Amino acid sequence: FLNVNVDHFSQLLRGHALQHVDISQRVLEYIMTATLPINTQMGPLIKQYVQSIFHSSDVNALPEALIADTVRQRTVVTPCQVLLLLYILYYNESIPSELLNEHQGKPSAAESNTIICDPLEIPIKHVLSHVETAQGYRDIYPDLLSCVANQFPYLFDVRAALVETGRRERSDESLKVYIKRMSWSSVEEALENHIDRPNEAISALNQLTKESTVELAKATNTIVRAMLPSLLCDEAGDAVRDAFSELWDMLNNVAPRELWVVTVNCLCSPDEPLKYNLNALIADPLIIFKSDVRLFRSPKMLPIFLTVLASLRTASKHNAWQRFSTTFANKDQFFNARNVTTMMFAQDSAMLQFLLEICLPQNDESIDNLDAIHLPICQFIHGIFIEDQILVKLLHFQTYDQRLLPMMVQHVPSIYITANFLAELLKQPLPEQVVFGILLAGYLFERYPLENYAVLTEKNVIRALAKLAFPPTRDGSPPTLQANSYLLEALSSTPHLANAFPHLSPAINDVLNDITQALPATSAGDFWADPVALVHEQIRTRLKEVQQIVQEQAQNKDKVNKSIM
């Protein structure tokens, strides 16, 4: 009865004629004997079979032990391996919805009963890349791609895909040119001695870029462990770093998850190569910030760090929501979607704060000489801001080091989003937040002197500065000057505001004059013994500096009106 071709068998399944028959062996036979081109009914047949597993107690799943060796092999991708991967993806994708239907969102012992639970077991990206370029998989490729995208979204990286496309084109060209090849032992030796013999190392790395994806996947651990830790040394050459980065980008499209694990372990714990596995990194992507600090001052190697960080962040968010959907999705659960969102925001804001900390100068460094480090980090932050604008507000309400405000305004185009909530930031009770908001307004509005920003400056920023200097009293009595370090910091913003909006300079100058007149007189020696007097003297000095600039803008306010530019 079951000895029919694939087309007829698929029709029987769709008609539920076999719902009380164990068809697992017959389906396995179809899969194991499949040839190219793949039968158009194989995809629907496997999908219908997976549904039968969950809906009929008579239908058994394929034995994992039986299919494991086939699906894990990394040599030649076969139709059998591709179809088994499709079966596994269908099966794992069906589990969350079936669990929710059966257990109404309550935790179940079967919630983690996925096939091949360790995500490193299956070379998914390798198989997917093969199916994309090989002939004969056209009918199952859309479903395969959809399942991988749903379950492993972090495997999709536009930059990695572009690199792989370029590699294929160069490989086709290289077939026309004969190049003397190094043996594998010579390649390993050249990589390990790249500091002393950089030219040989570059030749070895260039040769590896022309290897097949199978050979590259096998060599991933060896390549990274041989080179990455020592590439952070000052003695390593930039040409070698460039060649390694190019090869690393290719590996990121061949065996991305294996690459991330070995990269993080080499950067964080070179003496303990297996300290962190993929599950640990996905659970806590911030582990990567334990990397060797030399990495954060290496413009050539920093992009590798940011690529891994972005991938782990995506994987972590996907894993959290997947876990929630299988365990806590029922609305009666105490742990709800808002809790997951809060967790993700906390993780992302911590990540952004760590990135900004990297941008700060260390020891004798000058912040003006760190542009090569600032640019890739700011591009990364810009992408995060565009993806989720709530993080912009969260980060700026937390505040960060004021020295980084010019960098953020200059290199993060999406920083303009802060203007949407600047008025709210200036009304916060903590003086640290108010000062931060005033300084942000100065840098932002000077770069973007728009008319609506002029209104915001007049109605909110200038008033916030005046309120910071003369906070209102509870009993309604005339306010007195609070000359403290917060006011000293906020005064630095006034030249930027006057430069952005010269027609507002008189209003800014009025506030500065009020502060000057309210400052108590001090003798030349008082401020050396009295900290309060010292702050007063610093404010007086700062006032002289900024008033001159503001007054110049006030005198020229009729000649320049940047608010309508």
Polypeptide structure, described:
- The protein is an all-alpha fold and 565 residues long.
- The chain contains 27 helices and no strands.
- Helix 5 (79-103) packs across helix 15 (302-327), helix 9 crosses helix 10 and helix 24 runs parallel beside helix 27.
- The longest helix is centred in the middle third of the chain and has 26 residues, at 302-327.
- It is elongated and about 100 Å long.
- One of its GO terms (cellular component) is integrator complex.
- Pfam families: INTS2 (PF14750).
- Keywords: Coiled coil.
Largest sheet: none
Low-confidence stretches: 103-112
The SS-based structural class is mainly alpha
Q: Kindly estimate the percentage of residues that lie in beta strands according to DSSP.
A: under 5%
Tell me the distance between the termini: 81 Å
- Provide the helix percentage: 55-70%
Radius of gyration, in angstroms, nearest whole number: 31 Å
Question: Treating each run of at least 4 consecutive H or I residues as one helix, how many helices?
Answer: 27
Average of pLDDT: 86
Shape: elongated
- Could you state the order of secondary-structure elements as H and E? HHHHHHHHHHHHHHHHHHHHHHHHHHH
Quick one: how many beta strands? 0
